[in-house]
Amino acid sequence: MPHLSPLLTVMTNAARDAAKVLRRDFFEVEALQVRRKGAADFVTKADLAAEEAIVRSLQKARPKYGLVLEEQGEIEGSDNSNRFIVDPLDGTTNFLHGIPQFCVSIALERDREPFAGVVFAPITDEMFYAERGFGAFVNDRRLRVSGREDLSEALFGTGFPWKGKSGRGQSLKETDRVLAETAGVRRFGSAAYDLCMVGAGRLDGYWERGIQPWDVAAGIVIAREAGGEVTTIAEGKARPHLEGNVLATNHLLHDAARRLIEG
Ligand code: IPD
């Protein structure tokens, strides 16, 4: 891996600590699936254990920073400008079903802006990371967004509305419009990973409504540092992790994608 800053070293170490817990539990959950019982409870315990590992690691290295945690809520720090935003297991449904596409996601927010991000997919062993001004990487490779300018050739990612989310999720009509005008839509099941796919140029865009800060804060830094544009969908606001909806593109397609999604 290229030389990591002290901050990214802290964050990647914490992600690896959580990944040890998740990797061990993932192979057990596959066995639980086969026996068809107890998998949901088991995954909840895996989430919590992974989050504990991250909290221990981050608090030891940066004791003054606050933490926003998917499972345990907010822990305030004495430093008012820096807080970590943590999803110990983004892609919980995949994990629960034995699908290896899930991530640990850790962001550092500085003065309300996502400043550094780490997204680690432990089964495929892909460590995505970025810090503002220093570019984005996966393992030792630099990331660049795609150069596609034509919507009809573009591949988009999204998250569909699901039962726990009805009311604040997006309409399927929106997805239909995107399907009709582009090369296709993928649903990987992890918002953090979707944003990394935009950064890697594998997806040309990604949008989702009803998201939480911990789903997207780390991926936003990675997509932006790879040359992408990330805003809210309708108003194009610059802090989508605080607004509950997000659009990320390779930059070239941003306005056209906004118009298409909004209808
Ligand atoms: C979920 C995933 C999914 C997205 C949902 C998220 P979780 O996060 O990122 O792709 O569609 O909006 O809630 O629950 O697995 O941490």
UniProtKB/TrEMBL annotation:
Family from the record: Belongs to the inositol monophosphatase superfamily.
Uppermost EC category: hydrolase
InterPro entries: IMPase (IPR033942), Inositol_monoP_metal-BS (IPR020583), Inositol_monophosphatase-like (IPR000760), Inositol_monophosphatase_CS (IPR020550), Inositol_monophosphatase_SuhB (IPR022337)
Essential cofactor(s): Mg(2+)
Residues annotated to bind Mg(2+) 1: E70, D87, L89, D215
Top-level division of the source organism's lineage: Bacteria
Keyword Transport: no
Pfam families (alphabetical): Inositol_P
Known EC number: 3.1.3.25
Listed GO biological process terms: inositol metabolic process; phosphatidylinositol phosphate biosynthetic process; signal transduction
GO terms of molecular function: inositol monophosphate 1-phosphatase activity; metal ion binding
Designated name of the protein: Inositol-1-monophosphatase
Keywords: Hydrolase, Magnesium, Metal-binding
Residues the entry annotates as binding Mg(2+) 2: D90
Catalytic activity: a myo-inositol phosphate + H2O = myo-inositol + phosphate
